[in-house]
Amino acid sequence: MNKLVASAAAAIADIPDGATLMVGGFGLCGNPENLIAALAAKGTRGLTLISNNCGTTDKGLGVLLAAGQVVKMVSSYVGENKEFERRYLTGELEVELNPQGTLAERIRAGGAGIPAFYTATGVGTAVSDGGLPLKYRPDGSVAVSSPKKETRSLPDPRTGKERSYVLETGLFADFCLVRAFKADTLGNLVFRKTARNFSPMMCAAARVTIVEAEHIVQPGALDGDVIHVPGIYTKRLVQVTSKANWIEQRTVRPPVTSPVTQGSKPHAPHA
User: What is the pLDDT of residues 92-107, one digit of tens each?
Assistant: First the structure.
């Protein structure tokens, strides 16, 4: 029952070329950096990644992309990464864009064994009608476009009024890589604040869930009421060795000078 393995390299050793991976993280928050670094060092190629975004040009999943290890992204947001843009527009990367809530529900559905579901999000747009560029040619022309999806008119469960919905399919992966704040050796997981993001849903939507955790404790040390993912979903657990906390966009506001004090001399200190 002890899920702990010796290293990140050992944890991802059997991920083969061509695998489909779900990877937790939102921007650079909650990324399994140690597992990503191990996968980069292993050189596994032909990967399809299901993740909200692809890190930045040189951090997060962007490391795998820059190394040419990724052939397809299923994601919601594609900013912050110039290499992502270049590879997509030159035909080196296939991209399946999803509304963010739809992506989350597709992952949840896959973990729950739900093959497909109807949603109103995207109806009447290229999301439902097709035509979104999935892959470009090197000359900039579109090689593959998204297909038209099934739509149905159904009663809104809240109002009873007829409304159009589009059919979206559930997502499932070969492997899942996530980062937890705390874990016990049985694989019970606790995430910290917004670093939780998509990770709990992903843990249920893959055949093999691999977790890196900042703090690993013995069974019984975690309060059962605060556990986000039960250990039954965790197959392998590794101790975090690198704890980098990057910020994508650092914005600093200049100090505000009060009109009362502007140009005035400082007061003498009190005795």
Answer: 999 999 999 999 999 9
What pLDDT sits at residue 271?
43
Per DSSP, what are the bridge partners of residue 229?
189
Question: Does residue 244 sit within a domain?
Answer: no
Q: For residue range 131-172, what is the model confidence (pLDDT) as tens digits? A: 999 999 999 999 999 999 999 999 999 999 999 999 999 999
CA end-to-end distance (rounded Å), the chain? 67
pLDDT at 243: 67
**Global pTM?**
0.89
Q: What is the pLDDT of residue 242?
A: 73
Within-domain flag for 33: yes
Query: CATH no. for residue 193?
Result: 3.40.1080.10
Domain containing 99: what range?
Answer: 8-115+170-239
**Is 42 contained in some domain?**
yes
Mean pLDDT of 48-55: 96
* Domain membership flag for residue 247: no
